[in-house]
Amino acid sequence: MAATELPRTWPTQKVLQPTPSELYPSSDNPDLLEINLGPNHPSTHGVLRVVTTLDGEIVVGLKCEVGYVHTGIEKNIEQKTYWKAIPYVPRMDYLSFFSGETAFCMSTEKALELEVPRRAEWIRVLFQELARLHSHLVFLGTGSVDLGGIALLFYCFRARDEVLDLFEMVCGARMHPRYCQVGGVAEDLPKGFEAICRKFIPFMRNQLDQYDELIGANPIWLGRTKGVGVLSPEFAMQMGLTGPNLRASGVPYDLRSANGGYGAYRELDYTPVVEQGGDVHARFRVRIEEMRASVDLIEKVLDGMPGGPIIADDRKVVLPPRHELHTSMESLIHHFKLVTEGFTVPAGEVYAPIESARGEFGFHLIADGGPKPWRVRLRSPSLVLLQSLAPLCEGVYLADLIAILASIDPVLGDVDR
Amino acid sequence: MGVIIRRVEHRGELTLDIPVDRLLDVCGFLRDHEGYDLLSDVTVVDYLGYQGEVAGYWGGGSDGRDINHYSHSGKGAVPEAAGPKRFAVSTTLCKVMTVTDGNHRRLRIRVWLDDNESISTLISVYPSADFHEREAFDLMGITFEGHPNLRRILMPDDWGGHPQRKDYPIGGEPVQFSDEV
Amino acid sequence: MALRPDAPHDLPHTVPPTRTPPSGAVVIPPAQVRRSLRSTDLDQVVMTTSLEKIFKMATANSMWPFGFGLACCAMEMIAMISSARYDVARFGSEVVRATPRQSDLMIVSGRVAHKMAEPIRQLYEQMLEPKYVMAMGACSSTGGMFSNYSILQGVDKIVPVDVYVPGCPPRPEAVVEGLMVLQERIKSGIPSSSINQETQS
User: Fold this and answer.
1) Is residue B22 part of a domain?
2) Among C58, C96, C61, C77, which Cα is nearest to C180's?
3) C74 touching chain A per CB within 8 A
4) CB-based contact B60:B151 (threshold 8 Å)
5) How far apart are CA A46 and CA A412, in angstroms?
6) H or E element: which one contains A140?
7) Rounded Cα gap, residues A411 and A383, in angstroms
8) What is the pLDDT of residues C133-148, one digit of tens each?
């Protein structure tokens, strides 16, 4: 079966009326069937409930119901000091968990005007790329299960274990490492880390080649993903999409390179990965190529890793090193105040976005001058992604709905927070 | 433009306060003439009690260890009032496709509301505000006039109250020997 | 670990000298008796047990999980099921069913919001006896770090739980240990917690 070529001109995509995120059937056909997908269903994007109206196999109506894992994280964070709030944050977007920690720490550092040492920035980039790899691996594995090809799941989860081994080496926990601290990172890289990370790089490249072999020319895969769920760049802008979904439609917008980037990306000179198709196939390809780019970035970071401190020196924010507590009274007082009360952040509003595996991921932090944040709002990329599910699924088969949902890659922990 | 009430610059970010009734005009102007084509976020902040008393640093207000009482303890000084009313609805806009790399700018437009005031919906200008506004309604109780589908999104449909407001208790079960939840 | 629960613990190391092998039988040297079971060694091959024990062993060694992935713990649950390192197939649990009607063990992996409580209860009711529930992770055991208006402080408020696996998220090995503890529980005769439910017919 020859792969279908995508038309060069984008199909006109109109914003749905009256509600942009819900599709209503236009006919009063009495044979329309309204069925419920979820909240518990095998495609493991989380607990998403999609109420579809079907005309035979064709989707004519669609509504997303979310909130089944609403955790009230934002309100919980208001009760905790900044330091204690860090473990809450990776549990929102639980696939690229380190990105969440980094975003929160970055917004707190922006509010404090605290400078992070160079080595800490490079280490953060290393782990953000590993988190991106983790997220894309799970995406690829579960996405291919959604499309019916279960073999890729086992390959991807095997590679995922290697990624989590690296996280475990540095801080003890596989997922949700709570490794990022306000001011830097919690611990330095252990002694054997670089050697094992360097062995991981060719392993991962080999794995990516294997994935390409499995699905790159597979006629069933191409037939199911090419031309399905086409998203034009203007429509993506209207629906607020960012991240790999936008880059699959040809827009080279990536926060790691936009305006020079943030953190250590400023020194690493990253070029965004862009595809031109705008369909499900392009979204899968963007993420596979992003995995390759992540591995290249990891290699660059290891090659150029600077020495120096791993956390800022400001004793009003960062704990003093333990050996100082034995000799310096001031350090003891700082330690006491930081552990009991926490550091205070000057009043004001900041927004620090980063590029997570899903798109623009930012913390809108409102500080009141006290040790606890007044309000923390996570700009979740997945909430915005789900709005575009209904317009993309107009008139497609039910199986294509699953493919489109898999390709836009929402994470329900991020949607519901 | 003569509509800007106040202009705040903090940590390199620009926030413009505008009156509630001019929101749609301003956003339309920004999208069509200034090139802000991406709506990044719609955030609602509840400033009830923002200038509360400076309490001791073991947590809680002067009422003691009440876990359901919002706590803003340990401040060195009382902050100045953030705005004239209780709620602030901020819309963060971003320039993405209309500029070349290096010129992506962000702008925050903020309007101030009281408890029973409503605000017009931004869907006609930025369709991606849909779920954001529903969430603001659900969790904070802000009514968006003209929103075609303003119903709860994250909480169950029959939930009472708006959980993220500052006068809504945090809930949960009390934990022994702990002054925090 | 004994392969047969009712195997005699004092297996004879040597054939008693007064015993003559049946005619035509192959004489097995004593050192090989325990290692190989041939059909001619009647007193080593035949075991007596009760039907109950067999059923319990069958139940324990073929728990089909109902993959109820809610949040982050679901990732580790999938890792347990579909990763060669933590292979749960060796416990007979590789058949993860998407429908509760064909599964034995509901692994509640992740935080349970109030909105999700009703579907969970419905799904639990749809499972067939004997059914077991494993609360995987801190959030489903006790509510975890989320003590607030939205999260159920433990899934045992709506379904009876047999095994609690702590962790945030627990390592796949920890979940496997939870599964093994459940297997021991079943083999030792403790009935599933669902018998205390009034709704059982």
Assistant:
1) yes
2) C61
3) yes
4) no
5) 5
6) helix A118-147
7) 9
8) 999 999 999 988 888 8
Chain C contact for B158 (CB, 8 A cutoff): no
SS3 content of chain B, % helix, strand, coil (to 5): 15, 25, 60
Could you tell me if residue B89 is inside a domain? yes
pLDDT (tens digit, 0 to 9) for every residue of chain B, 181 residues total? Answer: 567 788 888 888 888 888 888 888 888 888 888 888 889 889 999 888 787 654 434 444 444 444 444 444 455 566 777 778 888 899 988 888 777 767 788 899 999 988 888 898 888 888 889 899 999 999 998 899 888 888 899 999 888 889 888 888 887 777 777 655 4
pLDDT of residue C43: 64
Chain A residue whose CA is closest to C76: A175
Encoded amino acid at A357, one letter:
A
> Would the CB atoms of A41 and C76 count as touching at under 8 Å?
no
B153: domain CATH number? 3.30.460.80
Is A43:A405 a contact under the CB 8 Å cutoff?
yes
Find how far residue A299's CA is from the centre of its chain.
21
- State the residue range of the domain holding B12: 6-47+82-168
Q: Which residues pair with C61 in a beta bridge?
A: none
Residues in B closer than 8 angstroms to C151, CB to CB, are: 172
Q: Is residue B122 part of a domain?
A: yes
Torsion over CA: A349, A352, A357, A358 (sign)? positive
- 8-state DSSP, C183: H
Q: How far is B139 from chain C (nearest CA, A)?
A: 12
For A49-99, how does the pLDDT look when each residue is reduced to its tens digit (9 = 90+)?
999 999 888 999 899 899 899 988 998 888 888 888 999 999 988 999 999
User: How far is residue B120's CA from residue B112's CA, in Å, rounded to a whole number?
Assistant: 13
In a domain, B65, yes or no: no
Contact A41 C98 (CB under 8 A): yes
Sign of CA pseudo-dihedral A396, A402, A408, A410: positive
Backbone torsion region of residue A339, taken as left when φ is above 0, otherwise alpha when ψ lies between -120 and 50, otherwise beta: alpha
**Under DSSP, is residue C132 helix (H, G, I), strand (E, B) or coil?**
strand
pLDDT at A56: 87
Q: How far is B175 from chain C (nearest CA, A)?
A: 9
Which residues make Cβ contacts (< 8 Å) with residue A313, sequence separation at least 6?
none
For residue A176 the two structure tokens come to 């949700």
Q: Which of A127, A129, A38, A156 is nearest to A412 (CA)?
A: A38
- The pLDDT value recorded for residue B73 is 46
- Torsion angle, CA of B142/B145/B148/B151, rounded to 10 degrees? 20
Query: pLDDT per residue over A255-304, tens digit each?
Result: 898 888 888 898 888 889 998 888 899 999 999 999 999 999 999 999 99
C-alpha distance from B1 to closest chain A C-alpha (Å): 24
Q: Is the pLDDT of residue C19 over 70?
A: no
Q: For chain B, how many structural domains are there in total?
A: 1
Q: Determine phi and psi for C125, rounding to 5 degrees.
A: -65, -30
